[in-house]
Structures are given as C-alpha cells and as structure tokens.
Design a protein that fits this description.
Rossmann fold; alpha/beta; seven-stranded parallel sheet; elongated; six-stranded parallel sheet
C-alpha cells in the first residue's frame, strides 16, 4: 500500500491557504493529521486558519499542540503570542514572544509584537526598549520613530515625543499617522492652531483617516466649535460605523448644545459596542443630569449599573492595606484629579490647599495633567507632594497610593473630564471620599460624599451610595482680584431690563428655555444676553436656540448673542450690561454664579431636588440672598418680574454686592480650610473607632 503523500498534501494545503480557500486548506491539514497525528506544521497551520476565522480558543489549542511536536518552535511561539493577544491575555503573550525572540533575537516583527503586548500591560519602559532594539536593526524606520513618539507621549515626555514624530516625518514626509500624532501632542500642549494644521495635513494625505477626523473633532469641540466638531465625528463614523470613540465623542458637541436625547443615544451606542467604555459611561451619567424630567430612581439605578459593570469587577483586585489607625496622627491625604490646571475645580480647591495645616495634614496631589500651567504650579507649591499620573493605568495609580500609605483618598469630580473614579474601586486607601462631583459615584467602595445642608438636605429625594457629610457652606472661591469695577445698573441707563446667562449651553435644556421665555413674555421690553466662550459665534448654534425660543413666542431680536472668547477681565466686563442672571436647571451654574455675584449681578435660581440643582441656592444663602431662590416655576417668573420692576432696589443691591460676597463664607479661605480639615479629622476618627 503506497505511503500517504504528506509533503504533497501539505503543499496543496498551503496553496489553498495562500489563495484564501480556507476550508480546502483545513481539509488537507486534517488529512495529514489522520496519517501523522504528531505533525507539528499541520497543527500550526490549522491554528492559523482558526485564528483567521476568529476561532481563537481553537487556534490556541492547535498551536499548543504544534509546540508539543515542534521542530520550528520560534515561529510557533510568535503565533502563539499573537493568538493570546487576540484573547486579551497580554501577560502570557509577552512570555511567548520573549521565548520566540530568545531563539531568534533579530526578528523585527516579533520585537514589535512584544512591544504591543507590553503596551497592553502599561509596561512603557520595556516597550520603549523593544522599539530601540528595532532601531538598532533598522535605523531609518519611520514607523518605529512614530511608535517611540507615542510611548514617550504616554510617559509625559512631550518634547522627546515631538522630536520622534518630527524624525518620522523627515524620513517619510507623507506619513499621515505621524502628522496625526504630532497634532494630538500639540493639542496636549495647548498649541491648538498647530494641532489643527497637523490634522489637516494628515487628512490631505489620507482623507479616509477616521482616527484623525476624530482627533480633529475633539480639538474643535474643546475650542467650542461644536458644529464643526459634530461634522468631523459624523465623517469618521461614515467611514467606520463601529468606531466606538467617535460615537462617544459625537455625544459631546450634542450635549454642549443641549441636544441631550441625541447625546444620550450616542453614548448608549458607544456602550453597546463596548459595554466597559468608562468615558462613555461617565458621559452618559453626567448628561442625564443636564436633562430635565429624569426621575431620582432612574438616576440612581443608572449609577448603580455603572458600579455593576465597571467597578464591581475591580473589587476582587483590592489588596490588604497596612494602616496605622491612630486617630490623632498627621494624615496623608491624596487628591486625585485631571483638573489640576486652569479649571473650576482647581479654583475651588486651591484655597483649601493653600491654607491647610501642614502639621496635621500631608496633602499629596495625583495629577493626570500632561502640561502644567500657572494654576498647576500654584497647586503644586501649595501641596506637600505632587505625583504625575499622566499615562498611568488605574491599577498603577492605586499601587502608587498603596506604596505612599495614603490614609484618605479624595476623588474630585469623578464624572467629568479624564478623572479616575475607578481608582476608588481598587480601594488604595482605607477611607475614600467623593468631592466636587455632581451626583453619587454609585460605588459602595466610596465611603463619603461631601456636600452642604442646602445642596443635600436631610431626607432629600436624591439617593447616594455614599454617606453624605456636610460642610457649613460647600462653595469657595478666591476673590476675583483682576475683575473690572462694578458698573451702574444697566436698566437705569437703557430703560429696560437685561437678563443674562454666561453658563455652558449644555445646561439650556428645553425646560429652561420654556421658563426663560415665560420670564421674557412677562416683561415684553426685556432682553436676554447669552455668552459662553465663543460658542454663540456659531450661526448653527444660535439658530438652534433661536428656534426653541421662537416656539414660545420670543422674537430672536430680543436675544443678545456674545460670541467672542476673551481674557477673564474682558469676559467679566460683559456683566456691565446685565441686570439679573437667570440660573439654569436642573443643573445650576457655579463658577458663573460666583462671577455674576462678584460683578454685582444677582442670580435668580430655581431650587431642584438634586445636588446639582441646589448649588445656586447654597451660594445665595451664603451671601444672604435666599429670597432669590424660587421653589417653583411660577414663583421664578413672579420673582423675576418683581425684582426687575424695582430698579432702585436692584441698583442698591448691585452697588454693595461685591463687598457682601467678599465678606461672605464664599471667600473666607482660612475658615473654610479649617472647617474642611475638621471634617476630614472627624471622618478619620470615625474610621479608627470602627
């Protein structure tokens, strides 16, 4: 009986395989294994077919069999690593790649595979070493210089990252990806115009580059050019409909122009594609708080679901802590944030840091900030220690905190920006506190949420997983020393009242516009001034809001649009033409409320059920203006008309309001720092007593 033609069958299988006829190739390889069950190449090739077909478990099993009978172990090990990466097992993939390279150390492609496995584990230094090894073999490889730039950027070495991207472009002037990466880096450094030039250059080379379109959209959104940003994200999705990042990012300009239902749909689409996309989940939760009519039960349920999906899987990774539970010791307090720069959060915590008792508290800032500005440097100087966590994973941040023996972790504004609430899920400190967030974290791992008695009254409707603790007054802001002087009452000069709002248009939901329209209708000669950075310079944004006001009978000519983006002093000067600020709801203003009060312009707020809907009332109470908080929409309209009608009283209030604010608890930095420290000490003693 003739011997089975193994080599001929293998050659035929390879021909089928290379031609893409996978079923025929698989049949050939299986025939070989029937004749010779220990044929390593056949097992290996079956594994490759399984991998190509998306059957990664079967691929892993087949290549593992090949390794048992191997005479070509290095190649098999490399492909074993590739399959492990497809199964999201980077640590095991790293082991396989290193074993392959031990046998054939000069394989550039294998070094690059190893680099990807290291990247997935956050091992950036080792990843960099891989790329440098590649450069030793291929010194003019533009792709490798580009990859090194990406690593150095993630490590926060932005100058070195830029140099590598530029070297890549010297070697390959038409390298669109390097232009995109250089643009992203310029954006991180705040050089937005240079970033835009890079993105447009990249797109001129490759108009179908959905990643660059997405990055350009992010930058335009940051600049307040929401229509152009939306166009970029939609163009990216037209090219790649399953691009998760673009679905998430599309939600941002939609939210910023108060198109909340569309924004929520975008975030939910992103989550349908990737249920563990943390940013999309946090964006969804925060957007629900901008929208009117969402029930407390629904909000709480959504936040609890965030814990179930995002945080609960991390609870098992919590590690035991070596803690000295001495109630009177100097406490090491971690402040965790991406907002340690020119940002409202930084302005609010700055006085607490500057005035803290270094003898009693060691304040350690964990900053997810790529480039430090003047505010960053001031915070760094006020703190006892500063750790840059830019580029670090949540587990790495938690490990750093455990090594630093943190007693209390304060997570700032976890719902927003690039903040890190899931570090709390890893429980790197025995006591964890949420501060300056807009709702519950939803996580049982967070022990306390700091508020005040007005923002979260006892037995209120809002629900929290944390235990709520209350300061005498929540909000704090340093005096605006560069602000222009308070002007005379504009109504006295113009003969009519001008209402205003200089807050984020994301807060101008349909209910807000309907109520403000009622106010304008009650005072037919009045005007409404709207300003937020340069957003209202966009004709599409203006048209969107004008249409909504028109539906309630308000002529667009009565709306005064301010579209210029100005320095702080010039921005504040616009309050010279505003008599009364109308607050938004259910998401109140905060920074803009303080600015308005400082400029002598009282704020009329509608108190809501949520913490975010009671900031205005809390601040007004602190400056003894509780009568400017309405409890119903009807009362809001009544108060607006009543206050507007009494121009002498408005003028008197305006003239003395700045002095009243300066003398109020809002600006009493030292007293507020002491109150905050007393609260932290009380929480620590309670923990020790447990």
């Amino acid at each position: 009986m003739p011997k089975f033609p193994i080599q001929d069958t293998l050659n035929l299988g390879l021909a089928h395989h290379q031609a893409g006829r996978l079923a025929e190739a698989e049949a050939c390889y299986r025939q070989i294994l029937q004749a010779e069950p220990n044929h390593a190449d056949a097992w290996h090739l079956l594994g490759l077919i399984a991998h190509q077909s998306g059957r990664f478990d079967l691929a892993l099993e087949s290549i593992e069999r090949a390794l048992q009978f191997s005479n070509n172990a290095a190649v098999y090990l490399n492909n074993f690593g590739i399959t492990l990466m497809a199964l999201n097992r980077p640590r095991e993939a790293e082991t396989a790649y290193r074993a392959a390279l031990a046998q054939e150390p000069g394989r550039v492609d294998w070094l690059q595979h190893l680099a990807k496995a290291l990247h997935s584990q956050g091992k950036l230094d080792e990843m960099l070493a891989c790329y440098q090894a590649v450069l030793a073999l291929q010194p003019n490889d533009a792709q490798v210089y580009n990859n090194i730039g990406v690593v150095r950027q993630e490590q926060g070495a932005l100058d070195e990252a830029a140099a590598n991207f530029k070297r890549a472009l010297e070697l390959a002037p038409g390298f669109a990806e390097a232009y995109n990466n250089l643009g992203y880096l310029y954006g991180l450094r705040g050089d937005r115009q240079a970033a835009i030039v890079c993105y447009h250059t990249s797109l001129a080379i490759n108009p179908q580059d959905f990643v660059t379109l997405n990055n350009l959209g992010i930058l335009l959104n940051e600049l307040g050019q929401f229509s152009e940003a939306e166009t970029c994200f939609r163009a990216a999705l037209a090219i790649r409909p399953d691009f998760v990042e673009a679905h998430n990012n599309l939600g941002m300009p939609l939210r910023e122009t108060a198109r909340h239902a569309e924004a929520i749909s975008s975030f939910r689409t992103a989550l349908a594609l990737n249920p563990r996309h943390q940013t999309a989940y946090r964006n969804l939760l925060s957007t629900l708080l901008y929208q009117s009519g969402v029930s407390q039960a629904s909000l709480y349920s959504e936040h609890r679901q965030f814990e179930a999906v995002m945080a609960a899987p991390l609870y098992a990774q919590q590690q035991a802590l070596a803690v000295d539970f001495n109630p009177d010791k100097r406490l090491r307090v971690a402040w965790l944030s991406s907002d340690f720069h020119h940002h409202p959060i930084a302005r609010n915590i700055g006085p607490l840091l500057k005035n803290h008792s270094a003898a009693q508290f060691e304040y350690v800032l964990y900053a997810d900030v790529a480039v430090l500005d003047e505010t960053s440097l001031a915070l760094k100087q006020s703190a006892d220690a500063w750790h840059s966590i830019y580029g670090l994973t949540d587990p790495q941040v938690a490990a750093q905190m455990r090594a630093d023996k943190i007693d209390i972790l304060i997570c700032l504004a976890g719902h927003f920006d690039r903040n890190r609430p899931l570090v709390c899920a890893l429980k790197p400190a025995p006591l964890q506190v949420s501060f300056h967030d807009i709702a519950t974290s939803g996580m049982t791992a967070v022990d306390y949420l700091i508020s005040d008695i007005v923002m979260t009254p006892r037995h209120g409707a809002e629900q929290f997983t944390e235990r709520v603790v209350r300061l005498p007054v929540f909000y704090i802001h340093a005096p605006l020393s560069t602000a222009p002087a308070v002007s005379s009452l504009p109504a006295s000069r113009k003969g009519y009242v001008t209402f205003g709002n200089f807050g984020n248009p994301a807060k101008l939901n349909t209910a807000v516009i309907a109520l403000w329209a009622r106010v304008l209708s009650a005072l037919p000669d009045s005007r409404l001034a709207l300003k937020y950075k340069q957003v209202y310079a966009d004709a599409k944004v203006r048209a969107h809001f004008e249409t909504q006001f028109a539906q309630h009978g308000v002529d667009g000519a009565r709306i005064v649009w301010h579209g210029a983006s100005l320095e702080a002093r010039d921005h504040l000067a616009f309050y010279h033409d505003v008599d009364i600020t109308l607050d938004s709801f259910p998401f109140n203003g905060s920074t803009t409320t303080f600015e308005s009060l400082w400029m002598g312009v009282p704020v009329l707020t509608l108190a809501g059920e949520n913490m975010v809907g009671r900031w205005g009332m809390s601040m007004l109470r602190a400056v003894r203006l509780s009568e400017w908080a309405a409890r119903s929409e009807a009362e809001f309209v009544e108060k607006a008309a009543g206050f507007a009608a009494d121009t002498p009283a408005l003028a008197d209030l305006r003239a003395g309001l700045r002095a009243r604010v300066a003398a109020s608890p809002l600006c009493d930095e030292r007293a507020r720092a002491r109150q905050f420290e007393c609260l932290l000490r009380a929480l620590w003693r309670r923990k020790c007593a447990e």
